[in-house]
Design a protein that fits this description.
The chain is of the alpha+beta class. Among the domains are: 84 residues; 265 residues, Rossmann fold (3-Layer(aba) Sandwich). Helices cover 15% and strands 35% of the residues. It contains ten helices and 38 strands. The strands form nine sheets. An eight-stranded mixed sheet has the order 30-31-34-33-35-36-37-38, with helices on both faces. Strands 2-3-4-5 form a four-stranded antiparallel sheet, with no helix packed on it. Strand 2 and strand 3 form a beta hairpin.
Length: 646
């Protein structure tokens, strides 16, 4: 990295930074779905430098790391469009969903992938191997049926692909988390139905399995329309465990002798919203020892739970964000990050508590002189409530601004909206702070990590509570002298894009905005989006068409006359979650209105950008756009962006 001999005076936004768009786009991967098989550890890497290809990677007992998935195969499923749970491991054979054709392939050690499912419009996820019957059990999403929407089931198939698949359970709108008891005699799984999402209300079932693997007698263990059950798992001695938010917090429970009993109850989250398959926040190290991740006020901790004494002991680690947790006797493996460490695959020796980092999401090393460390803040918002966020001050050891000058503030509204803003090291946030922007990453009402009541603040209030919290977070920092009230910016993707557009439309506080594939028309979203989210708005807005007035009232596309702020739009042209028309209609309206506006569509991208060139282009275009809106000079040459009406 370069280093100036003496700090230079320069306006905020114009600072030269070693954290470049090339390093972020090509040098950063996404790490997902950890799995253990014998002494070997597996995970998935999403690689923008390879066009967003997802690769199953193996770390073997001899310390060697190698790719398992050969090019051009892409281990990625499209069930629920968001995917997750794309592979399963058994005796070193990998069973994975291939993105191009969505068929399941079996890859034996040293061999090439071969398909074990037919060429049909079927998608598969969340698979487990039934070693007793030599079958694969998974969630199936059938797009061949003549129905108004795809049909989801639990099914099993022969590991060799020589037999037709067998439907195990059907009749519900959604399924997830099929989990076999250690002796193979029982199967647990989750279901939910429209209009609920899995963080609203789910049901946990257990079925006694017949000789062919189909469930015989079925029992409902837990769950309901007002209880979210997450991650059922069997202990090594055959006791079913799960996470439930029946008390208002996602805590751990077990089912013994037909009764549900809590293992630990505390005001903390041991679960997370099931946007993806294959999520895991706890794992068994032994019959009586659970390694678990616990979220308190948006920050994750690692702990050991003794199921006999029900005592929880925190494990000291440097990490504040933990996911995809797996364990076996003596060790735990998970994906973790912290304010100074990017997301990494980590192995923890539970006896010595020694940490071994197996893979980092980026090899970028940020000098502390350019690294902004976030601090958790709470601030007052509407109706006498408090909201949460992580604040990142501007940081670059090579520059300072004029005395009295305050930095522009970039407010980030996360997606979901039932998601969470993490405080782990995010090179993209550091891209902004090292150039002289302050950043506020808001966990508005509706976010995870603060209990079910906080999550439910958004019920019937999407486009209201989230927007108020972003606005009040920005006002709070201006009042504290941390940001320039005349240079407030808001950006967001997906649901965060909707929050961004509402803030720009219905409030006069932000002076620029960036919308990444956000919703602009709630009615169109209700009618056009994919099955998984097709009834999500019933809870976030209201029943449709009964509350059509709210859908119209909260859609920015209907109030273009109130929007007077420059906006830059980014959109994947193959997006099925938020179709391109949502962005293009609003862009055309602002263009006709005469507002400064830009639109960058990307071929081959879906809901979220995966190609390195597109990630780089979008990030630089956003910075270029702000430089023109706020009249500061860029430190590096950037390919210009067409800004209409400026």
């Amino acid at each position: 990295m370069f280093r100036m001999k003496k700090p230079q005076l320069a306006p905020y936004g114009s600072w030269k930074s070693p954290i470049t768009s090339d390093l972020i786009a090509s040098g950063t991967i996404r790490l997902e779905q950890v799995a253990l098989d014998g002494e070997n550890i597996y995970w998935i890497e999403m690689r923008p430098a390879e066009g967003g290809r997802c690769v199953v990677v193996q770390h073997s007992s001899d310390g060697q790391t190698k790719d398992i998935t050969p090019s051009p195969f892409n281990a990625r499923t499209r069930v629920h469009e968001y995917g997750g749970g794309a592979f399963a491991i058994h005796d070193s054979s990998v069973y994975f969903s291939n993105f191009t054709d969505q068929r399941i392939y079996c890859q034996a050690p040293g061999g090439q992938p071969r398909p074990i499912t037919p060429e049909k419009k079927m998608r598969y996820a969340d698979g487990i191997v039934d070693r007793h019957r030599k079958r694969l059990i998974c969630v199936c999403e059938d797009h061949t049926a003549r129905e108004p929407e795809p049909v989801n089931t639990l099914m099993s198939m022969d590991l060799h692909g020589t037999e037709r698949g067998l439907v195990l359970v059907s009749g519900n709108d959604f399924y997830s988390s099929p989990r076999l008891s250690p002796d193979g005699s029982q199967l647990a799984w989750l279901t939910w139905n429209h209009p609920d999402m899995p963080w609203d209300g789910t049901f946990l079932w257990v079925g006694e399995l017949e000789a062919d693997g189909s469930p015989g007698q079925i029992k409902r263990v837990a769950g309901g329309p007002d209880e979210s059950v997450f991650q059922p798992e069997w202990s090594p001695d055959g006791v079913l465990h799960f996470v439930s938010d029946r008390t208002g917090w996602w805590n751990l429970y077990r089912w013994r002798e037909g009764h549900v009993e809590p293992i630990i109850e505390m005001e903390a989250e041991f679960g997370a919203p099931q946007w993806l398959f294959g999520m895991s926040t706890y794992a068994f190290e032994s019959d009586e020892s659970i390694i678990c991740a616990c979220n308190e006020k948006g920050t994750w901790h690692l702990a050991i739970l003794d199921t006999a004494t029900q005592k929880l002991r925190q494990i000291t680690t440097p990490y504040t964000d933990i996911s995809y947790l797996r364990a076996k006797p003596g060790r735990a493996v998970f994906v973790a990050g912290s304010p100074t460490e990017p997301a990494s695959v980590v192995q923890l020796d539970l006896r010595s508590e020694r940490i071994n980092v197996l893979r980092r999401s980026t090899d970028m090393v940020i000098d502390p002189g350019y690294l902004s460390i976030p601090r958790a803040i709470e601030f007052p918002t509407e109706r006498g409530l408090t909201a949460h966020a992580f604040f990142y001050p501007q940081k670059n050891q090579d520059y300072f601004a004029q005395p009295g000058e305050l930095p522009p503030l970039l407010v980030i509204s996360h997606g979901g909206p039932t998601s969470i803003a993490s405080n782990k090291l995010d090179p993209m946030i550091q891209y902004w702070t090292s150039r002289g922007f302050a950043v506020l990453n808001v966990n508005y009402g509706g976010s995870t990590g603060y209990g079910r009541p906080y999550r439910q603040r958004l019920n019937c209030q999407w486009g209201v509570v989230d927007v108020e919290d972003c606005v009040n977070g920005a006002k709070h920092l201006v009042a504290m002298g941390e940001a320039d009230g005349d240079r407030l910016i808001i950006r967001g993707a997906s649901a965060g894009g909707y929050t961004t557009l509402c803030a720009l439309t219905f409030y006069d506080i932000f002076r620029a905005g960036a919308d990444y594939y956000g919703v602009s028309d709630l009615e169109a979203m209700r009618k056009e989006t994919h099955k998984f989210e097709s009834r999500y708005l019933d809870r976030l807005i209201g029943a449709y068409p009964e509350r059509r007035d709210l859908y119209q009232k909260r859609s920015p596309i209907n109030f273009v006359d109130r929007l007077s702020t420059p906006v830059i739009f980014f959109q994947g042209l193959e997006d099925r979650v938020v179709p391109p028309d949502q962005t293009e209609r609003l862009f055309r309206a602002l263009l006709q209105k005469g507002l400064p506006v830009s639109y960058l569509p990307f071929e081959g991208e879906q809901h979220g950008f995966r190609h390195a060139g597109n990630i780089k282009r979008a990030l630089e275009a956003e910075l270029y756009f702000y430089s023109k809106v706020f009249s500061f000079r860029l430190a590096d040459p950037i390919e210009p962006v067409t800004i209409h009406n400026i």
